């Protein structure tokens, strides 16, 4: 069985971004993201693609980018214009939803799992991940010990979607 997993780094208030950028830069979390998604398909919104260094897709991953703009055709990515198109492409593999706010909200009902790096800090944010601690069908299944980087404390948490019908797509 193949599943779709959301992966994100969130603040204590589930903030994920501000002014088109990330809120945190934790090297171990970046490595964790790379290790987890490497050689898989990653799904993101057009704004997240544009926020990456040089607007370039993630290396060594199959990049799917959602945009409503039918003229949008950047190099090295597969552009999809709606969720159905995305689900059609990824039906035979495990894939990861990698942001941002709009795309997490859009794709979360299709995700069986969410891997969340929870950072114990609340910087100002303008973009948020849905609060899974207060979502009826999401449950915290596992969490790591606490790690520290500079003055930031964080944990890797795994949430599971308890609505069985979303586990297969
Ligand atoms: N902390 C984290 O883990 C993390 C991860 C990723 C991103 N981020 C942050 O999140 C922020 C960006 O998030 P965002 O919410 O502004 O933008 P986003 O989700 O990255 O992209 C939004 C774009 O996706 C396209 N889109 C949205 N819904 C669609 C649909 N139903 N069908 C087709 N296309 C659709 C539209 O593109 P068009 O306008 O081209 O139509 C829309 O403008 C940045 O600050 C970034 O740094 C944080």
Give the SSE layout.
Elements (H helix, E strand, L loop, with lengths): L3 E7 L4 E4 L2 E2 L4 H11 L3 E5 H6 L10 E5 L11 E3 L2 H7 L5 E3 L3 H7 L5 E7 L7 E2 L9 E6 L3 E3 L2 E10 L8
Parallel strand pairs: 1-7, 1-8, 4-5, 4-7, 5-6
Antiparallel strand pairs: 2-3, 2-9, 8-12, 10-12, 11-12
The structure holds NADP nicotinamide-adenine-dinucleotide phosphate.
The site of NADP nicotinamide-adenine-dinucleotide phosphate (NAP) has 28 residues, from strand 1, strand 2, strand 3, strand 4 and helix 2.
Describe the protein's architecture and organization.
This protein has 169 residues and is α/β, with parallel strands linked by helices. It contains 4 helices and 12 strands. The protein has helices at residues 27-37, 46-51, 83-89, 101-107, and strands at residues 4-10, 15-18, 21-22, 41-45, 62-66, 78-80, 95-97, 113-119, 127-128, 138-143, 147-149, 152-161. Strands 1, 4, 5, 6, 7, 8, 10, 11 and 12 form a 9-stranded mixed β-sheet that branches. Strands 3-2-9 form a 3-stranded antiparallel β-sheet, with no helix packed on it. The chain has a single domain (4-152), classed as Dihydrofolate Reductase, subunit A. The radius of gyration is 15 Å and the shape is globular. The chain is 18% helix and 34% strand. The mean pLDDT is 95. A hairpin with a 2-residue loop joins strand 2 and strand 3. The site of NADP nicotinamide-adenine-dinucleotide phosphate has 28 residues, from strand 1, strand 2, strand 3, strand 4 and helix 2. NADP nicotinamide-adenine-dinucleotide phosphate is lined by residues 8-9, 16-17, 20-22, 44-48, 51, 66-69, 72, 81-82, 98-103, 106, 127.
């Amino acid at each position: 069985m193949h599943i779709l997993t959301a992966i994100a780094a969130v603040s204590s208030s589930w903030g994920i971004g501000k002014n088109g950028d990330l809120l945190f830069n934790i090297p171990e979390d970046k490595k964790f993201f790379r290790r987890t998604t490497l050689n898989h398909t990653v799904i993101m919104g057009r704004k997240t693609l544009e926020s990456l260094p040089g607007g370039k897709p993630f290396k060594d991953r199959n990049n799917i980018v959602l945009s409503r703009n039918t003229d949008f055709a950047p190099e090295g990515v597969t552009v999809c214009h709606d969720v159905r198109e995305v689900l059609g492409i990824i039906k035979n593999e495990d894939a990861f939803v990698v942001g941002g706010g709009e795309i997490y909200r859009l794709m979360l009902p299709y995700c069986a799992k969410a891997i969340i790096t929870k950072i114990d800090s609340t910087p100002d944010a303008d973009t948020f991940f849905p609060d899974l601690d207060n979502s009826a069908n999401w449950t915290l299944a596992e969490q790591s010990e606490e790690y520290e980087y500079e003055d930031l404390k964080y944990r890797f948490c795994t949430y599971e979607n308890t609505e069985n019908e979303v586990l297969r797509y």
